[in-house]
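forwarding from the other thread:

> can someone predict this with protoporphyrin IX containing FE?

sure thing
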Amino acid sequence: MEEFERHGIRVVSGRDASARALRARELTSDPGGGSPSLLLRDGEDHARVRGVLREIIAGLEPFPGALRAGIETVVAGLGPAFDLVRDFARPIAGSVTAAVLGLDLDDAFLDRLEATTANLDVFGGTDRAGQAAAFRLAVQLSRAPAGPGGLTALRAAHAAGRLDDDELMFTPVVLAHAAYENSLNFLACAGLELASAPEPRSVRELATAICPARYVLRFGPDGPVAISLADGLPFGLGRHACPGSGVAVAEGEIALGALAKVLHGGCRVGEVRWKTHPVFHGLAKAVVTLPSGNR
Ligand code: HEM
């Protein structure tokens, strides 16, 4: 919060005040400057691009059986000691992102996707490394041969005149980042909760408690505003509310259900390190060790 105030950004918090701010007409997601990203726009252009993404995301509802089996295989393959970020959350969030796009994604791609976070930086995108990572991903995706799925659907929407050239270039990166970053952070934090205090909680309750996207930024007549989502709005609200929340909840139910079985006999957790980003709340590392004889 101090970080925002130091940058002259007003903070809105508390569930009711945040909900009102998210629905307010006078607060826009558009900082000016004509970004092709739907996260940084409002009005008809935002609604048009969002409509295309909603159709793509609907392709994963209900959650595909092969994707579920892939997640269960990742969890079944966890060894006697594993990192909740690298070995659990990353391959699972990566597999769902790959399914959203209709592409195979390798480790180098996921590294760049994680570096791209900085490009969505609330302080004006001044992080050159983050911008370079996003640019490289955009180029890579523009050249990738794609099977059935999001990338092919975005190209078809462009061919049909529903997306312009800039939107075709950037929307795949925005979609990949949206599908990956918050799920990665959520799954690792929820895994830590399960490992530390295994009383049963629904995925929606866990998402509310963890709230991986802590703030969203809006622009109003009196300057920028950071709206807190930490008081019960983990998927946001209003025009930009997460269109992937159903997919995220299904992904969490499958992954965390499988992990709970692995952790059933107890475990130790060590080397817990947190990320320090002001908006995206997540773990950098947390190593779970199962009692010998449990695996
Ligand atoms: C636990 C996981 C997730 C959380 C906590 C989360 C949270 C959010 C939040 C808070 C926003 C609103 C941003 C704003 O108001 O500026 C958002 C937007 C978005 N999310 Fe998610 N999300 C998650 C997973 C996903 C997944 C799996 C997908 C895709 C399958 C996805 C796709 C999107 C897209 C495309 C947007 C942009 C919507 C727009 O600007 O109109 N999200 N997400």
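Residues 2-79+88-264 form a domain with the Cytochrome p450 fold (CATH 1.10.630.10). thats all i got for now
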